[in-house]
Amino acid sequence: MKSQAVLCCILSVALSTLSATALPAPAYLSFQTEDETNNIEIFRAASPSVVFVTNKALYRTDRFSLNMQEIPQGSGTGFVWDKTGLIVTNVHVIQDASRVTITLQDQSTWDAELVGIAPGKDLALLRISAPPEKLIPLPLGDSSELEVGRKVVAIGNPFGLDTTLTVGVVSALGREINSLSDRKIRNVIQTDASINPGNSGGPLLNSMGQLIGVNTQIISPSGASAGIGFAIPVNTVKKVIPQLLEYGEEVRPILGIQNPPDGWSQQNGIAGVPILAVSKGLPADRAGMTGIQQTQNGEILLGDVIVEIDDTKIANSDDLLNALEQHLPGDTVRVVTDRNNQRMEFDVVLVEPDKQ
Question: Which residues contact 69 (CB under 8 A, 6 or more apart)?
């Protein structure tokens, strides 16, 4: 029995030695999980498209001097939109700048020309005169295909650190955040991928390396990432960029009405957007809509109060503007109003601003 035990022990050691010899532990440099491989591939492909945005301002050298000195007052991130030199970033990254410079991945720096801004979407479009071979646009994804739980990757320049990658998931969809113009940005992507100061204006990418959002804001008591970041959906960016190229600003079709401030409506207990006046010859006027009127004894009579556009409830002016932004000039929309407690419906053909 003792000899059998010794023999088993020898065989066990021999097998262990043979196993260790036949199956050596993989070297770290040659080992990657599928997720690590994906992260590395995304970063290598996308980082050449990500740029450093420097916001410079003029300041007096002293209070008694007329001499002005240009100093950096902030920085952020942007990315290459196309080979013509278009760069996308956030409005708040370039706000109050006297000059904006763009630094590419090869460390070359270029003065940027402002093409247009959309404060209501926190999007800015710049142009640099870099040669096309230096410009690598990001492939565009479709933000309507996103789902909660999908992996996302953010690339940016947090705290001035060059080209940093963070990884997370889509935490929620359809969020709303306030823009610089106090309008709500709708259908925003929420992510837990770390977004810190300096990441603003950078790309949010899916696991295929496609652009699905522009990082814009965080919620954090300390000002650093707390796992709640927001990005403007790429489908919104696709709609805004052509407008900035053509008009220099975001343009929406109009009904041809004037409406009072929301505060006035709230104070008077009015649900919806009351029409203060209709512009002669414009769509609302042609459709037969009416504004507020004043009787001879000074009494104010409400006209039409817009409560719905194409089955979308309208509670305030922000709702109205958002509904109009979903359309192009020439589109026909169904406008539902409340007129003296009666439901009215109008088919209105939208037009461009300042067009008859």
Answer: 58, 59, 60, 61
